[in-house]
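Subject: sequence -> structure tokens, single chain

Hey, anyone have a minute? Need the predicted structure for the following. Not urgent.
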Amino acid sequence: MKGRLVAGRYELATLIGQGGMGQVWKAHDRTLDRWVAVKLLQPNRSAAAEQDAELRRRFARECRVTAQVDHPGLVTVHDATGHGDDLYLVMQYVQGADLADHLAEHDPYPWPWAVAVAAQLCPILTAVHAVPAVHRDLKPRNIMVRPDGTLVVLDLGIAAVLNSDTTRLTLTGSPIGSPAYMAPEQAMDREVGPRTDLYSLGVILHELLSGTLPFAYSSALGVLHQHLHEPPPPLRRIRPEVPQALEELVLRLLAKDPLDRPADAAEVYRTLAPLLPGSAPTGPEDPGTPMDPTRPFRQPHAPWHGTPPLPRPSPQAPQPPQPPTAAPSAAAPSASRKADVAAAVEQAKLLLDAGRITQAVGVLGSALPAAVAAHGPDSPVVHMLRKQYATTLLEDGQFQAALPELRLLADQRAATTRPDDPQALRFRIEAAQCLDQLGEHTSALAEYQLLLSELDRDAAADPSLALEVRHRTAQLLLATADHTGARTVLLRLLLDTERLYGPHHPLAAESRRSLEWLERAAG
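Reply:
Had a minute. Here:
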């Protein structure tokens, strides 16, 4: 798939996400020489004709709804096209971190930041609801935080268009969305409206302020039961410094009855406005923390202070990179070391943009010792640089070098948060992948099984992580011809996937195909 040219102009480069509607790729637009995000819908070739037509209707609706909403806080649609039997939606490529990662990197999350995030989401939701439409899957993974602190909402495609007869385009009749952020009326598959999104906003606010979801259970059905029948835990008991007005707003947003919630996103914004930071005095801006969501309110319309990027090399004829800056001596001023690290990171970004991954690995690897000397081994800067280094090593297939970096990241993350922290678990999953790629199947399988036992014991664990680990375990058991073990894992994977996402999710279909193959092999 990588390198595939779509519609004669979009060259697929890196897989950046996938879900029930297909895959999302970072791609290079050859015509305009820019990066874009390309969402690919691959209809099931073996699906019935009516199911295939249903998916195509959903895709057409995604294109239509996303294109109707004009707001800088929503990802921009550039094109909708087809390639053979596949369908593509071409969108703006957004740089930054999703809100889930942003929260993980800033725990505890400052309450003014949570207010700023919600205040930025309110005008975005107002624009969506004016279509009229409902997002129906608002969650931290669908919210990007740019380096300048502004937010962009993704994945509007499953929105229900309120003035059409296409509000329930599902193959199963089950509700669309993520159980942890789902409003009670959505969980019961009843009529949804703008206040459904406000409930999801309340869940996000509670998570940002408390560090945990208001409702967490070991199964999706348990979570939905809590949404329907249990009150959320009091915020100020967890974070006493949270203003009482903010706690009261979250409780109103999380009301079981939609009529008890705020009337619209504009009312939510008016409640948040007194809690927002005021504009900073005129003068040079303090650089502060990158991706600070309060910045648009403190410095409205001010240019981002970051160093302007150097001219990007043309993908057809990339310019040769400059040699990596040598790590400064211990006697060099700290400011000089930090400047060298920043220059190396910028150089690595240019190399990655040009597709020169191996050279980027060398630059990042050389920058790590300088970053440790300048910032200290446990600083957020070193952590982010090490994370980028490990990610680039994985992308380059250097699994032997990536393995110790991922293990170190997992240990450091667990030591500063908790062993079952989602980001720490993610690092451990990627380390197990390295073991698998290196042919150390026994060690990889042992790590996957240990992760599974921990995830199954943790009632608050993200169920999608357990699905991923169980899927990888099943693949490894199949690869090592342990058919009995693979069948046991696949049956549990199928059951959990259907309970969480419904029987027509791609992972459920893949599990059924594998089980059918095992039955034929046994016969």
